[in-house]
Amino acid sequence: MKIARYLLTAAPLLAGDLERFTDSKLNQTQRTEACLALRGVKTAEVVTAMRAALEDMRVQACAASNLRIAGADKQLLEALQDNNAMVRAVAARELGTMEKREYIDALRKAAQDKDLLVQTNAMEGLVRYRDRSSAPVLREIALLGGILTSMALDQLIQWNDEAVPQIARKLVTRQEPGDLLAGIRALGIAGDASDLPRLKELASTDELAGAGGRGFGLMPAVSISKAAQTALARIGQRAAKS
User: Fold this and answer.
1) Which residue range forms the structural domain that includes residue 224?
2) Do the Cβ atoms of 121 and 90 come closer than 8 Å?
3) Of the ranges 9-23, 24-38, 59-73, which one carries the lowest mean pLDDT score?
4) Which residues face 222 on adjacent strands?
């Protein structure tokens, strides 16, 4: 009797919250409050409303979280194909938060999206996998070049992934300064004596990456030579301790 009485009481309240949430005339605070009141509700009507709200920047983040909490994985996966880049980005973020292995491939594809925000959100999702099941995909992404290379390689370094030296050796053969710097830094952390010849070669260059160089936009200029010298020193220090 108590459960039935609660359901009869709750139904009008939920209907009212849903009406407020979908009322575009209300301000953001009012709609967000209604969104939070609907958190955890898994009815078809609420899930449909949350999916539609992903197109509305005012309540997009709350709606995306509600879909994840409600277990509406299907809707979030579908949102990864949306024409709106912001929708794809928020969907990638929430899918990554789930840490489900079956979504790693979807996040891998999203990491190569044409939109930078979608790319970075997908990468942030991939690095959330505390069981490191996303490591094989991060190894692939680390060789794609650009900002994705740095993000993926940084995470692999944190995980002490065995593939870091091999990835770094490929990066230091490239001409793109950003990839070169990522590879040099990784060799300084995980390289060995076999990397000394290439690092010495790079240490003799006067090329800059960053402002006045190529590939890093407005970032401060970084000397490839100094980066290589630092890597050489770190490898030497490790050799001395062994």
Assistant:
1) 134-242
2) yes
3) 9-23
4) 209
